[in-house]
Design a protein that fits this description.
The structure holds two protein chains of two kinds. Chain A is an alpha+beta fold. Chain A contains nine helices and 19 strands. In chain A, the strands form four sheets. Chain A has a six-stranded mixed β-sheet. A six-stranded antiparallel beta barrel of chain A has the order 14-17-16-15-18-19. In chain A, strands 5-6-7-4-8 form a five-stranded antiparallel β-sheet. In chain A, strand 6 and strand 7 form a beta hairpin. In chain A, helix 3 packs across helix 8. Chain B has a single domain, classed as OB fold (Dihydrolipoamide Acetyltransferase, E2P). In chain B, the strands form two sheets. Chain B has a six-stranded antiparallel β-sheet with strand order 1-2-3-9-8-5. Chain B has a three-stranded antiparallel β-sheet with strand order 4-6-7. Chain B is globular and about 40 Å long. Chain B starts with a strand and ends with a helix. The chains are: A alpha+beta, B alpha+beta.
Amino acid sequence: MSAETDLKKTPLHALHLELGARMVPFAGYDMPVQYPAGVLKEHLHTRASAGLFDVSHMGQVIVKAKSGDNADAARALETLVPVDVLGIAPGRQRYALFTNETGGILDDLMIVNRGDHFFVVVNAACKEADFAHLARHIGDTCEVTPLPERALIALQGPKAEAALASLAPEVASMKFMDVASVSLVGADCIVSRSGYSGEDGYEISVPNEKAEALARALLAIDGVMPIGLGARDSLRLEAGLCLYGNDIDTTTTPAEAALNWAIQKVRRTGGARAGGFPGADAVLKGLDAGVSRLRVGLKPEGKAPIRAHTALFADEAGTQKIGEVTSGGFGPTVEGPVAMGYVASSHAASGTTIYAEVRGKYLPVAVSALPFITPGYKR
Amino acid sequence: MLKFTEEHEWLLVEGDVATVGITTHASEQLGDLVFVELPEEGTSFAKGAAAATVESVKAASEVYCPLDGEVVEVNQAIVDDPSLVGSDPEGAAWFFKLKLANPADAAALLDKAAYEALIA
């Protein structure tokens, strides 16, 4: 297994092993898929209490205007994303998408206004390409500085606030999508009130050398349990959040992916800064004229999960294919199977019954609104 | 006679009927099961054919028919409560009973010592 020796390790790798994690390769890293509690209990624990996730494999990068004016960095970023970056107030963050020339999605990301620069967090599997993309396109006006010296820890769940506030009381007053500099275990951390579980919680950028001390301090708090990538996936699926590479990729446009909410009015047709990002014509046409397929929630009527790449049909006989599942599994909180996928717009209305081909049978599935759970975001 | 397969099924052979389930080792590898699909009673399978499906939160796996035979009874209890497979995989959570086409073929399967060596 020579490939395993090539896997990168996060600063929490030794801690994962100590905690009894089952490790798997993910985006080039040796990552915990589950701990001894197992995916089901880890998922339910996060929804009921607080879960700690190592997401240090994700990419962190600073974008700073060479002019010294942060608005120049915002304008530069707006040439790569269909998002109102100029409108992100200091101490706030916004979800964004890197688009390509055909309006497909290169990656999804978070953009944080840190006052004198922007702090950007991207997906692990895309990070080298994203760093190169930023340097190539806006490197003339901005310094683009990846931060491999920083780890990323997420603390998610209804008890996340009490847990983190026991180390730094000021985090309790943060609202959803606020970002602040916070000292934790003697380290300068960047804390955002956000996550990927559908629950309230925080994401904490911490220097590598302090990551284990911070994780141990959080795990020592009553109600905090380590959570692996398995439950991270089932949590985000119930929350209706996209997984890059499954639910969105270079072949899906923002409108097809039902991510219209991520494109603010000022960047749309008729807005003051309409377009001006890669693939703008295709992206805005999708928003203005509609699209022929849409990402939707899928709720199987029976108990059988429907997995990614399962074919979807309009009819019980399986003659008219109308789409495909992109993420699917069992939702422990929903206590049943949940999925999302792309279907023809003619069949995308909530409540429409379509059919999933599973082991030669055509199982009824209801097109459903997302998310499948009520999010706990602290707005 | 208790036998095992390299695909992590166990068989308790009594006369020409084998009770079939998955091993404790397999159950631990799969994690908490959330869905079990069993074959119809009366269905015949060849050795190695996918006879049942189990799903964890993350993934689906097949349970293979360990010998040629006809399914004569299935354990509805594990369909109703898939978590039984995690709590008692080599007992109450049997999957199906198979009327063996050639009962003598069971002798060639792994015995307990050989199976334990396989998973060691």
